[in-house]
Amino acid sequence: MRQNDPDVAPEVVVVGAGCAGIAAARALAAAGKSCVVLEGGPRVGGRAYTATLGGAPFDHGATWLHQANENPLTPFVGAHIDHDTVRGRHLHLGDRFATRVEMADYLRACDVFEEAIANAPQEPDRAVSEVVPKDGRWDATIGHWLGAQINAAELSLISLRDYVAVDLEGPNLLPREGLGTLVARLAEGLPIRLNHAVTRLRWDGPGVVAEGAWGSLRAGAAIVTVSTGVLASGGLRFAPDLPPGVMEAIHGLPLGLLTKYGFRATGHRRLGMPPFHSARREGAGGMSWIFWPFERDHVFGFVGGARAWELSRQGPAATEEAARADFTAMFGAQGAALLGEAVITDWGTNPLFRGSYTHARPGHHESRAVLSRPLGGGRLRFAGEACHSRFAGTVAGAWLSGEAAARDLLDKTAAVADPS
Ligand SMILES: Cc1cc2nc3c(=O)[nH]c(=O)nc-3n(C[C@H](O)[C@H](O)[C@H](O)COP(=O)(O)OP(=O)(O)OC[C@H]3O[C@@H](n4cnc5c(N)ncnc54)[C@H](O)[C@@H]3O)c2cc1C
């Protein structure tokens, strides 16, 4: 590998040290390219970040390795559990949990709902909400679950074609150390400069210049991995401006919001919930919960979509209060009294992210491909979860897209060096 001399312009500058940036930098380093990763925040991992709750690992963002059979991070995972093998599911009906029979009925309705999506004609592209059943007993609950709680946006906001293209079936692994810890380990030894927010990227040639309050850095090419939320808000500007088609792709891929919260909790024989079980509430407004992962003294959950944005705007205390109320609705005041110290994440307000992960707006299913195309003769490439179709919105998609951007750049450079 070439040395990264701070006085010598690197061949490649990578903007952002999340999964995509780390994967790109690893691929470039393995090929002997000099590169520097400029990260705006004080840590690596981006939306994959493990902190602690009650002394135990707690992921603020990415939590599961989805589709583990094909996830590029599976080979690196240490101790873990396949969540699907231990996750009993519970549905709360307002005054009690669903019986086995009701649960079976609900799960059958889930299959019907998902089949309606999978089998709907994809032309013309339209919102997922237009093709799903609406009149069944469970349909509002299922729509809320698949929209706000899983995709971080209501189904009325999501492109059917993009939704169907995403394939996250397969095992969901929970790494014991936390997914953020795993990702941070994969960044070790890379030439990453923390607290180096890039505010402007010049790509008028011959190479690129990244600029920020810390100074500037010239490089041969750039791989930009910041979220589409950052790009759409002007958190990183370009000179010259990005072409209109690219701006349209960025706006076609907004970030939804999934706010994760965790509470330290002990006592009351753990509410009769075995470790790793999950619960959600009937209706179109409920949050979701996972109990006692790895036997830890904590519970965590999510609120997504429009409600998450509204709570985020009000501040973390509002999300905490709403989560406590949701828990009270299931377990009463006595159960809710178990909830102690809280961690409330802030992906919506954080200017380094501005949301959780992307969905394509109806009619914008081509945006991921558009955003992935090199610009300026290969001087500028975008990568990140927004740029991967099959694993969009996940660490797997981010990782594969970062690797792909680096490989494409390496291939083009090799072709120029050896025109034969
Ligand atoms: C609550 C939540 C739950 C999730 N659950 C899962 C899950 O279970 N499984 C899963 O696979 N995925 C999950 N995801 C999604 C997953 O975390 C992301 O898809 C993935 O981490 C995105 O990686 P990335 O490299 O594309 O972007 P990021 O992680 O956002 O990396 C971009 C980096 O750029 C930095 N940056 C921003 N602006 C600048 C700037 N101007 N200059 C320099 N640096 C800048 C940021 O600080 C960040 O580090 C979840 C996300 C959230 C928020």
Blueprint (SSEs and pairs):
Blueprint: E1 12-15, H1 19-30, E2 35-38, E3 50-53, E4 56-59, E5 80-82, E6 89-92, H2 100-119, H3 139-151, H4 160-165, E7 173-175, H5 179-186, E8 192-193, E9 200-202, E10 208-212, E11 215-219, E12 221-224, H6 228-232, E13 237-239, H7 244-252, E14 255-256, E15 258-265, E16 278-281, E17 288-291, E18 298-304, H8 305-314, H9 316-336, E19 339-344, E20 357-358, H10 367-372, E21 380-382, H11 395-417
Parallel strand pairs: 1-2, 1-12, 2-8, 6-16, 9-13, 12-21
Antiparallel strand pairs: 3-4, 5-7, 9-10, 10-11, 14-20, 15-18, 15-19, 16-17, 17-18
The chain binds flavin-adenine dinucleotide.
How is this structure best described in words?
- With 420 residues, this protein is α/β, with parallel strands linked by helices.
- The protein has two domains: 171 residues, FAD/NAD(P)-binding domain, CATH 3.50.50.60; 211 residues, Alpha-Beta Complex (Polyamine Oxidase, Chain A, domain 2), CATH 3.90.660.
- The chain is 32% helix and 20% strand.
- Strands 6-16-17-18-15-19 form a six-stranded mixed β-sheet. The chain has a five-stranded parallel β-sheet with strand order 8-2-1-12-21, with helices on one face. It has a four-stranded mixed β-sheet with strand order 11-10-9-13, with no helix packed on it.
- Helix 1 links the parallel strand 1 and strand 2.
- Helix 1 runs parallel beside helix 11 and helix 8 packs across helix 9.
- The longest helix is centred in the last third of the chain and has 23 residues.
- The structure holds flavin-adenine dinucleotide.
- Flavin-adenine dinucleotide (FAD) binds next to helix 1, strand 15 and helix 11.
